[in-house]
Amino acid sequence: MSTATRSLPRALGAHAVLLTYTAIALFPVILVVMNSFKSRAGIFGAPLTPPTPKTFDLIGYTTVFGQGDFVHYFQNSLVVTVASLFFVLLFGAMAAFALSEYRFRGNTMMGLYLALGIMIPIRLGTVAILQLMVATGLVNTLTALILVYTAQGLPLAIFILSEFMKQVSDDLKNAGRIDGLSEYTIFFRLVLPLVRPSMATVAVFTMIPIWNDLWFPLILAPSEETKTVTLGAQLFLGQFVTNWNAILAALSLAILPVLILYVIFSRQLIRGITSGAVK
Amino acid sequence: MATKLMATKLMAAETRAKRPIRWHVGVFLAPAVLVYTAFMILPLFGTLQLSLFRNIEQSQVFVGLGNFRTLFGDPNWSVNFWNALRNNVWFFIIHMLVQNPIGILLAALLSSPRLRFTAFYRTAIFVPTILSFVIVGFAWKLILSPIWGVAPHLMDFVGLKSFFTPWLGKEQYALTALSLVSVWQFVGIPMMLIYAALLSIPDEVIEAAECDGVTGMAQFWKIKLPLILPSIGIISILTFVGNFNAFDLIYTAQGALAGPNYSTDILGTFLYRAFFGFQLQVGDPNMGAAIATIMFLIILAGVCVYLFLVQTRLRRYQF
User: Fold this and answer.
1) For chain B, how big is the Rg over CA atoms in Å?
2) Which domain holds residue B95?
């Protein structure tokens, strides 16, 4: 009885703090998306009210689609993200399998070597990466970005995936071996399907920094054909500083795809974090 | 006994010798190791090496630590360098003092038993973390802009309108304001990691504490906090690495010149300007490499302090 009376005000207090912080976290996003649907007068006259029939206007979106080549940038981002993700998951899972399944000389050293990249950011090697890309003629190609992002994503992917691969039952793999399956079949047919949930977690972790990165597109692939949506938005925003409708619309267009993906995968992501893979 | 041991050893040696080379191990490892070595490790060492050379009359000349001497001593470089380093330290201090305590507070509240809507709060508070720096930097620039007037309008609600100034435009406030924007963006990460750590504390420990009369705040400080110290160590080192490698937010909000008057310049933006040049300054890959080397050493020092001093001394509890 006494705990019940004591816990009610405490629960209310907790809700008050959490609600306040949720408001702080969401306010800028809501503000930007809401105002992108308004006319210029509406944006400045009443920034905090939702669009009314009087202030509703799509002028910002028509400017964005008329000016920037956003569909093309979007395709570039998609190609780079999907391809990097594919290679990170495939190569990462293969290496994680080798490290967790087989005992060989230098196993621990190899694990440490591959884990180095979790702590040391790849960005610090930029000067030499650019020279390498210039030497191989890969500057201003999406291939350059894909290679760099694959290298960037591998360390964490291998680290997380090998933790999960250790949990796959040995009996199952040995049963496969007795049935005459090759090591490759065991990996692709038995192990990969079993670690699919953790692959999804790694995918989300790998995807967000790649999609949002500004540094490497700016340095390795700033040409018009290879611009990613993040770089395109950055340059567009710089050009249209005074066109608030266009800026708000461009920001909303950049927010929405990520937000939709996040809402779909948030359960996966949060389970991945709280399951202790990153601890 | 001894002979038996010898025999088993011999047998083991024999099987090892007979075992064929396991090509598949190599095949599984090769792609990851190749890509990782070619595009991460080699460029990293290439950059360290470049920092020891200088371009004199179109050829690379070995100058030893000459570039670092220029960086620390030559007024053309050192003023900017020490300024960027100082700003970067302040950037990190704000994260440690604001982001991580708020993260811990939110996680502690989220993990309180029988609280409803936790999934909603978790999802909502993590939203800023998934957004790109471009969006975050620009959205806050608009909100804090005196032209739009959203920030003064909001402060008027709580009677603080007179305190409003265009923070991003003032030298003494701009860096702190941007650090707080970055805190706003990343508070979800410490929150999630601490939340996970708090959830993994077994109920028996909490029940035992309650039997002994340790509840509420005392329970948090005396029981839970010591148990989540390893996670606090991890978020500290993650914050450290992230902050000394930061670039995007400053670049999107203030441009490569990190204005006003370099007051928001951090090592990342300084590296970018040194490497590519900006306006009148010509880009210099060797000086860029020297700055990247300093950043590498700072981050390495931080990671070593964490691995050898912090992690080994933290007491871990096995449940």
Assistant:
1) 26
2) 68-313
Which of A32, A104, A124 should be substituted to probe chain B, the one whose Cβ sees the most B Cβ atoms within 10 Å?
A124
Identify whether A276 is part of a domain. Answer: no
Give the residue-averaged pLDDT of B248-261: 84
**CA–CA min distance A272, chain B (Å):** 10
- Asked if B105 and A28 come within 8 Å (Cβ–Cβ), the reply is no
What is the number of structural domains in chain B?
Answer: 1
Task: Say yes or no: A47 contacts chain B, CB-CB below 8 A.
Answer: yes
Q: Is A259 on the interface with B (CB under 8 A)?
A: yes
* Dihedral-angle region of residue B114 (phi above 0 means left; psi in -120 to 50 means alpha; beta otherwise): left
- The CA radius of gyration of chain A, in Å to the nearest whole number, is 24
Q: Which residues of chain A have a CB within 8 Å of the CB of B298? A: none
* Residues forming a β-bridge with B277: B282
With an 8 Å Cβ cutoff, are A128 and B275 in contact? Answer: no
Q: Which domain holds residue A217?
A: 69-223
Smallest Cβ distance to B39: which of A48, A148, A273? Answer: A148
Q: Summarize pLDDT for B58-74 with one digit per residue, the tens.
A: 788 888 888 899 888 88
Please report whether residue A194 resides in a domain: yes
**pLDDT by position in tens, chain A (length 279):** 344 445 677 788 889 999 999 999 998 888 888 888 888 887 777 777 777 787 788 888 888 888 767 888 888 999 999 999 999 999 999 999 999 988 888 888 998 899 888 888 888 888 899 999 999 999 999 999 999 999 999 998 998 888 888 888 888 899 999 999 999 999 999 898 888 878 887 887 788 889 888 889 999 988 888 988 888 888 888 777 778 888 888 888 878 877 887 888 777 777 766 665 443
- In a domain? residue B120: yes
In a domain, A234, yes or no: no
Q: For residues B277 and B133, give the distance between their C-alpha atoms in angstroms, rounded to a whole number.
A: 22
The whole-angstrom distance between B226's CA and the closest CA on chain A is: 16
Smallest Cα distance from A176 to chain B, Å: 16
Tell me which residue in B41, B251, B275 faces A214 most closely, judged by beta carbons. B251
A22 neighbourhood in chain B, CB within 8 Å: 120-121, 124-125
Note whether B193 contacts A273, CB cutoff 8 Å.
Answer: yes
The span from the CA of A271 to the CA of A198, in Å, is: 10
Amino acid at residue number B10: L
Q: How far is CA A63 from the centre of its chain?
A: 28
Give the pLDDT confidence of B138-163 residue by residue, as tens digits.
888 888 888 777 777 777 777 777 77
Residue A205 resides in a domain: yes
Instruction: Please state at what angle helix B75-94 crosses helix B267-276, rounded to 10 degrees.
Output: 150
A2, A8, A18: best to mutate for the B interface, most B CBs within 10 A: A18
**Distances from the Cα of A9 to the Cα of A3, A15, A180, B101, B200, angstroms:** 11, 10, 65, 23, 26
Q: φ, ψ for residue B88 (rounded to 5)?
A: -65, -40
- Inter-chain residue contact A128 with B231, CB threshold 8 Å: no
